[in-house]
């Protein structure tokens, strides 16, 4: 037998105590601290706090959206399967259009990735939604582009594209966007579906509190 | 319009070229280099190579298992949804027992997590399988424990539990185990379902080559 902590509650408590010990959250609002804590918990990297960039209104905006029944739009399937459905305050829809049948044809016609083409199918759901990116820089870029051309706007954007080509650039574009949409993002190459799902789950928990 | 790379093939090529430029893979076999490249690609962190620990036989063992039709056993749903099914050479089963109905009761009886209790339901599938962990340290610990007591052995273990409590310890236990099962793992706190799925996808691609 190995000597390790087995009780789920004790594991959570020790995890969060470790994060509180190692991370200086000063200056962050309580809801934003909850979101940051869950993101750090998902990746095991307290050091990412330095690259976390966010609009002070993002927690409030995303919580209000979920409480109002807004859908969650995700760029990839892994995020949708990381979202803990029982936390969603209004049994909110979780929508990923990436694998819809016409996406490969659209991508070929648009000379872009399937991930970016799939964003076109978000249009009817976009207004007031919570948009989350855990994979594809091109998807986040594409959303920014269509919004600049007048597409409806989500209530909040959670931006965690990952990787070596375009990820850092797409997240900088989000953080520097003048579209005035509340966001949270992790600047640089790091990101991914686990962090993205953790951000959604943190917001869903906040939305469920006090309702 | 933002200026970014849109062509999927060009994005892949530039990503892998960046990884080759930044990472010194010398001393690694070609198959292991493929696996490491895909893991780094999934997290955007070339620096993790230093913590990657593996048995030289793991690529060969896991490839042979998949070619022989072995199932893939995963500790969490996110990994199963990150596995690209069309790459699997024998339409291999991808099994996650975490959400089977009796798991919460088993966990309570065993005084452990649901993730660890779910491993009990792997027993009939274990022999010669590819076991993959993208989340739960307790699940990896539990597999090591039942194997030490005589449970059937997988052909290979891909160990990427993540987090602050038990993750580093469970992966050190895997790397130091005397059970003699080929493995690849990322020592320390980092890990997660994206890296775990990337390892499976790399192995599946290798298994599909030359068949």
Automatic annotation (TrEMBL), chains A, B:
Pathway(s) it belongs to: Cofactor biosynthesis; adenosylcobalamin biosynthesis
GO molecular function annotation: precorrin-8X methylmutase activity
Keyword annotations of the record: Cobalamin biosynthesis, Isomerase
Enzyme class: isomerase
Cobalamin biosynthesis precorrin-8X methylmutase CobH/CbiC domain location: 11-205
SUPFAM superfamilies associated with the record: Precorrin-8X methylmutase CbiC/CobH
Any Pfam family: CbiC
InterPro entries documented for this protein: Cbl_synth_CobH/CbiC, CobH/CbiC_sf
Entry protein name: Precorrin-8X methylmutase
Lineage, top ranks: Bacteria, Pseudomonadati, Pseudomonadota, Alphaproteobacteria, Sneathiellales
